[in-house]
């Protein structure tokens, strides 16, 4: 167990819980990459932080909690829960997420979140879209494309 890396992951999630983008950014390596089922690959700290800025703005009142943080000298993991109102539909979402991390220079250089896309789409989009289409590749592509367009449109801060 690497206590510095456990503390780094905890600091990241504490900052996320307070929507403190500056503190989140301090946890990331300049060459960080992020991926999840929606934002598949986001490269570089500036772009990753714009993604978080977008996420915190789109998910009205994001509340998060985390647990099961582990880390060694090279990698780490945590489980976190995101609770928010999905802005496009006004629906409440409780998303259970497993996160994996890699470290370089005692900072997070790779952050990958994994969650059940079909379950998320049912909560976020409701019926019939989420239930009927949430599992289809075409629907996933639509959601991913929309997220990428929103990220591309966001000006660097």
From TrEMBL:
Superkingdom of this protein's organism: Bacteria
Pfam family, one: SnoaL_2
Protein name, per record: Nuclear transport factor 2 family protein
Chain coiled-coil ranges: none
Gene3D superfamilies for the chain: 3.10.450.50
SUPFAM superfamilies: NTF2-like
Domain called SnoaL-like: residue spans: 10-111
């Amino acid at each position: 167990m690497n206590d510095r890396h456990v503390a780094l992951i905890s600091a990241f999630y504490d900052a996320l819980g307070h929507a403190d983008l500056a503190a989140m950014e301090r946890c990331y390596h300049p060459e960080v990459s992020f991926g999840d089922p929606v934002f598949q690959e986001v490269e570089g700290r500036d772009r990753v932080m714009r993604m978080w800025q977008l996420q915190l703005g789109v998910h009205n009142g994001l509340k998060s909690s985390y647990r099961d943080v582990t880390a060694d000298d090279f990698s780490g993991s945590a489980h976190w829960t995101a609770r928010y109102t999905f802005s496009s539909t006004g629906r409440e979402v409780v998303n259970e997420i497993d996160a994996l991390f890699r470290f370089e220079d005692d900072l997070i250089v790779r952050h990958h979140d994994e969650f059940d896309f079909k379950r998320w789409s049912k909560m976020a989009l409701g019926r019939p879209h989420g239930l009927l289409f949430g599992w289809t590749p075409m629907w996933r592509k639509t959601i991913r494309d929309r997220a990428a367009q929103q990220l591309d449109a966001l000006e660097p801060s």
